[in-house]
Amino acid sequence: MTTKVGSPNRTPDQAPDQAPDLASNRSHPRTYSRWASLVVLCAGTLMTILDGNIVTVAMPAIQGDLGFSAPGLAWVVNAYLIPFGGLLLLAGRLGDLVGRKRMFTAGLAVFTAASVLCGVATGQSVLIAARALQGVGGAMTSAVVLGMLVSLFPEPRERARAIAVFSAVGAAGGALGTFLGGALTQLLTWHWIFLINLPIGVLAWFAAMRILAPDRGAGLGKGADYPGSALVTGALMLTVYVIVGAGDRDATATALLALLAVALFAGFVLRQARTARPLLRLRLFGSRLLSGANAVQILMIATMYGFQFIGTLYLQRVLGYGELATGTAFLPAPVAIGLLMLGLSARTIARYGPYRVLLAGLVLITAGMALLSRAPADGSYAADVLPPILLLAAGFAAAMPALTGLAMSGTREEDTGLASGLFNTTQVVGGSLGLAVLTTLAAQHTDTLLATGTAPLPATAEGYQLAFRVATVIAAAALILAAAVLRTPRVRDAG
Fold it and tell me: Which residue range or ranges hold the Major facilitator superfamily (MFS) profile domain (predicted)?
């Protein structure tokens, strides 16, 4: 059982001149070429996902080497997230217009070049500027991947398998980045967390140029609505900026910036309703599955991103782990995610349907966060950290492919790039939201306890416990929302 993803009015064997399609029989006469294309897409995605997480463990080393202040150090992460989150929607639409292969390969080139600049940076300003350029390249690469995947695999069962592989790479890559960040920083220097992207990026670019089928795109003449693009890009960048910097400014400034972001979004929606060639077709949000899946994803990713960041801090600041030990402690997560997604995910979704699998995954995520919220100051990895990690990994391995399939379900061929950009945008918003809210709550609670005379170690541990409890509530909210809005009828495959 799976739900047909892609255009409901289009068959897989239509000619390319009827609708540009990477999965057409002319473009991909042999099955293996489509799976080779999937490997290329996964390689490009892995590089950007690794970079989003690999920096976390290396932050103290970067701070010590380049002399960042505590607030300034946050911009090593924020400088990447703001352009990445702000440009995904525009990059997805431009991919539909100029061709997704062109957008993907251009993004790889920009990201790889920016990684080298990060790796050779010897000053704060150079590193932050290069991180921003990485965000641009990451947005260009990531925005079109799901659209390309949907076109490559029009048949439901193959698509479920492809989404499982893609999701496994993405999910495991996040945890793997923590391990690589610790290993490279401790064994070499922090510069290598960026320089490692050079060989990966070059190989991925050449493979993409050779393996990915060319696609024409609709043409820039179809319109990218540049005034609308400016409004939504500004709104998204400002939203991410408000979220990630909320703890560094007073409440009044945050509220004013948030109101400005809302005003920009309102202007964008108004323009999209009136312009002849909108950037974002508002009818997309008429899809209950697309809108609901994106809302659920914001909450789920907020939980998982918060777990990874706060969990790293717990291991280092409470249990006293070094960089390499911290990275190694997270290794069971990518291993479990990879094994479960590749071995069970597609078959489980085919048997029980994405809705049921998603709910089961969210139950496991909620349970894992609840268990982690009990981690004490005198805790141990085996008793207090590893069991929640395995529960969270199993839950994410079940939930993410199912949620991705539901989000892209029923998306028209001409909208797949835009829907892909939207889905990736909500990932960034969710991650930024989780990071900002949970780290701020943990820090404030710890400061309150320290002011009342609590010893530093217990105060720090209790701050993290509060963050984990809030993350448990967020995960439960994702479960309730998914149960309410994403229910789909069971449809059995003919075969």
Answer: 37-490
DSSP state of 409: B
Residue with tokens 């061929």: 413
Residues forming beta bridges with residue 409, ordered by sequence position: 5
Q: Which residue has the higher pLDDT, 391 or 346?
A: 391
Question: What does the pLDDT look like over 239-267, one tens digit per residue?
Answer: 767 766 655 666 777 788 888 888 988 88
The kind and range of the H/E element at 267 are helix 251-274
Cβ atoms of 7 and 19 closer than 8 Å:
yes
Domain ranges within the chain, ordered by starting residue: 31-213+222-485
Distance separating alpha carbons of residues 269 and 237, to the nearest angstrom: 16
Task: Specify whether the CB–CB gap between 1 and 351 falls below 8 A.
Answer: yes
Which letter, b or e, does each residue of 374-383 get, where b requires 16 or more Cβ atoms within 10 Å of its Cβ? Answer: ebebebeeee
Q: What is the Cα Rg of the chain in Å?
A: 22
In this predicted structure, the answer to whether residue 375 has a pLDDT above a threshold of 70 is: yes
What dihedral angle (degrees, nearest 10) is formed by the CA atoms of 205, 209, 213, 219?
90
How far is residue 49 from each of residues 101, 298, 364, measured CA to CA in Å? Answer: 19, 17, 23
Q: Does domain 31-213+222-485 sit in CATH 3.40.50.2300?
A: no
3-state secondary structure of 67: coil
Distance CA 438, CA 310 (A): 8
User: Comparing C-alpha atoms, which of 188, 233, 210, 244 is closest to residue 40?
Assistant: 210
Region of 362 (left: φ > 0; alpha: ψ -120 to 50; beta: rest) is alpha
The values of phi and psi at residue 409, to 5°, are -65, 125
Taking the C-alpha atoms of residue 35 and residue 152, their distance in angstroms, rounded to an integer, is 9
